[in-house]
Amino acid sequence: MSDFSRNSDSSGFARNKVAIVGYAQSDIRRTAGRTLGALTVDAARAAVADAGLELAQIDGYVSSSLMPSASGRVAEDGVSTVSSAWLAGRLGGTPRYVAGFDGIGQLTGSVSMAVNAIASGAAEYVIVHRALHNPTGSYHGNPMQEVHGPQQWTAPQGFFGPLAMIALPYNEYLQRYDAKPESMAAVVTEARKNGARIPWSYWHDRPLDRDEYLSAPTLFDPVCRYDCDIPVDGAAAFVLTSAERAKDLPHPPVYIAGYANGIPARRRLPLHWPLDDILGAGTELVRRLEESSGIGMGEIDLPQVYDGFSPFVWFWLESLGLCPPGEAHRFVEEGGIDSDRPGAIPALSGGGALGNGRMHGVPQMLECYLQLSGRAGVRALEGMTTAVACHSSPHYGGAVVYSAERF
Description:
Blueprint lengths: L17 E8 L10 H15 L9 E4 L20 H8 L5 E4 L5 H15 L4 E8 L28 H16 L8 H11 L14 H5 L3 E3 L2 E2 L9 E9 H4 L7 E8 L13 H19 L8 E3 L6 H9 L8 H6 L18 H5 L5 H11 L13 E6 L6 E6 L4
């Protein structure tokens, strides 16, 4: 037991008053044969049925419909994005609460809004969904003919898009801690190993070995192809309700113990993510996460770190205090997160984004739910009662703590 009290909630957070009671996950494909809206409607219906509920009982919808950048395309609701309002309109009923989170770390924000809605009585049963689309054409191509505003200082020089964004702190980490890009092979192969075991994953039955990783082309030095999650079409939905109502539903509830969002420490130009900003804000995020949940990170059985780009894994491991600063590269390379190794931290047991496809935090949240509710099947890990799901970067995303027990 840490110094954090599980019996009090000085933060004012609705600790363990709201639970996940059902879920559904579509197959994750490079290009689906149906619209994103159709995939999401089916996932939402399946999640409601999984929770043992009827659609008429759903009175809340929360999501974040931020579209990943790709060739400058305009977002179209129901096709390239799916908003809460769009989904509520297609499922029918008379929802009392329909909202969307506008920010980075989309699932963290969506979960927090759903928790607050249920705890305040604004809704009783809420669907939280995330839907991702892979547009055709060149990924992250630059369609701009003119550049205005802050980007005029970066885009003309080639500093454009997320690859440039992550290459900056990745290079900083390599140089500061004498790390080698080859060490990242242990991250990517671990994610792909676990994703290959999951039926709905894009990489199902397709693990990756070290030699294949090391032979991948460099996209934006030192980022290579396999350091990036692959763009996909897919949708997932979770049903949340109060802990009291959850008692009468068919599956063991997984309680939301706390959450926190990252806040950039300084005003920067777009995509300017220095390593100190990331790790410094990550330390503060974790402090607030422990305060809201009453659980120290050293007590967490199942951390699921975000890996939209592989260096995020190192950053989250250090922000969470799971290894010393500057040691994540050695920790991982020595088997520290190997889910098949006794005593290791299974930080990518759900495959993450690198092992499933770009689902923006869904694999992390889903793995926490499946393991803590006892629904992971042959992938079940023993003794899992607490978990944390991380989303985006520590300084620009967030994390949610889950518990199988309502302490």
